[in-house]
Amino acid sequence: MGLMVRANFIILIAVSSLTFKAAAETEKEISSSNHKLSGTLVYSEATKRPTAIIVPRSGKTDRNGDEGREVRGKIYKQLADQLSILGINTLRIEKRDLKAPPRTQETTTPPVTIDDYEADLHTWIETALPYSSDECVWLIGHGEGGLISLIAAQNNTQTCGLILISTAGRNLSSIMITRLKTIKDNMRIMPQISHTVRKLKAARPIPNEKMIPPLRRFFGEHLQPYLISSFANTASDLIKKISIPTLIIHGENDTKTPLSEAELLLRSNPQAKLVVIKKGNHILKAMEDKEQMTVMKAYMNSFHMIDPKYGEEIASFMKEKS
After folding, report:
1. pTM here?
2. At 55, phi and psi to the nearest 5?
3. Which residues does UniProt assign to the signal peptide (predicted)?
4. Structural domains present in the chain
5. I need a labelling partner for 160 at 20 to 30 A (CA). Which of 21, 145, 193, 289 fits?
6. What is the C-alpha to C-alpha distance for residues 258 and 285, in angstroms, rounded to an integer?
7. CA pair distance 213, 219, nearest whole angstrom
């Protein structure tokens, strides 16, 4: 174990120990549209405190922020530990599985949509409210979680404010086109990809049999309700309607969602505050550069701790605005 890894490991143990003494941790469960979802609440038993819900990014991200072998380190748990020490309660939540199998005669479970994620978040807000020192809770949305938080906060008096971490300002349709163009094998099918995206953005589903096989991975029938509902929402449009305190926090070394996305959000709502974390990446860890190998190591190294500046900036903003 290297010197830096050892130091990070010792810090993690120290932080976890302090958190255990300072706060309690309990499991919470909700039932939303016949779905049971679980979450972990970290809170003070002695007094009510500002309370935030950590809304996860896209993919199979669990409540702790891990995603199989791709992302390790329990980044949301680390953030919750940081915030607890700084006087903030957190509820980190599970979300419905987007990539559930398509409906068959044996199952009647409908595909997941952005509307479902929003409905679940409203239920989580009700769950967190009794622990808040205010008559509202904060939403900390990471990546796609920022979009869902923006949707849920529209005309919602139970939302104190928004923290948008690594959230894209552009529509998902544009982001998908940009990312798929970077894959060499996709170049020959880009016309079909663009056509498919245009149809789905117009809310026109496409049967699998009318798509070439490579497209089904990204645009298959069971994903289309989610894609259509997501394409109908753009963060840079939604943030224009937000009047509650909003912090946009972004890492300068984020290779998945570039800093230009955060700048677009700020231009759309100049009343928001933008904080750029030096060397920060998409998953809240500091990286020295943007080389692919550096990125992969940061994502997969469970001993690579998140940058404490994220917790410090979030707690400071929440306390200032509470």
Report:
1. 0.90
2. -95, 120
3. 1-22
4. 3-170+238-321 (3.40.50.1820), 172-232 (no CATH)
5. 21
6. 15
7. 10
Contact between 109 and 100 under an 8 Å Cβ cutoff? The reply is yes
All residue ranges of the chain with pLDDT < 70 are 1-22, 99-109
Q: Which residues contact 280 (CB under 8 A, 6 or more apart)?
A: 250, 251, 252, 253, 254, 286, 287, 307, 309, 310
pLDDT at 33: 75
Whole-number pLDDT of residue 69: 78
Using an 8 Å Cβ cutoff, are 97 and 60 in contact? yes
C-alpha to C-alpha distance for 230 and 4, rounded to whole angstroms: 40
Q: Letter for the amino acid at 190? A: M
pLDDT digits (tens, 9 = 90+) for 114-126: 999 999 999 999 9
pLDDT (tens digit per residue) in 177-214: 999 999 998 999 999 999 999 999 999 999 999 999 99
pLDDT at residue 32, rounded to an integer? 78
Residue 101 DSSP one-character state: P
Residue 274 and residue 263 in contact, taking contact as beta carbons nearer than 8 Å: yes
Q: Which residue in this structure is represented by tokens 């953005």?
A: 201
Phi, psi of 67 (to 5 degrees): -140, 80
Backbone angles phi, psi at 277, to 5 degrees: -90, 115
In angstroms, how far is CA 177 from the centroid of its own chain? 21
Q: Specify the 3-state DSSP secondary structure of 277.
A: strand
Per-residue tokens: 276: 């750029």
Greatest alpha-carbon pair distance for the chain in Å reads 61
Whole-number Å distance between alpha carbons of 304 and 308: 12
Beta strand 51-55 with 89-93 is parallel
On the 0-12 / 13-18 / 19+ scale of CB atoms within 10 A, 125 is buried
If you search the block for the tokens 């997941």, which residue do you land on?
112
Nearest to 279 by CA among 310, 298, 249, 251: 251
**Mode of pairing for the β-strands spanning 137-142 and 159-165:** parallel
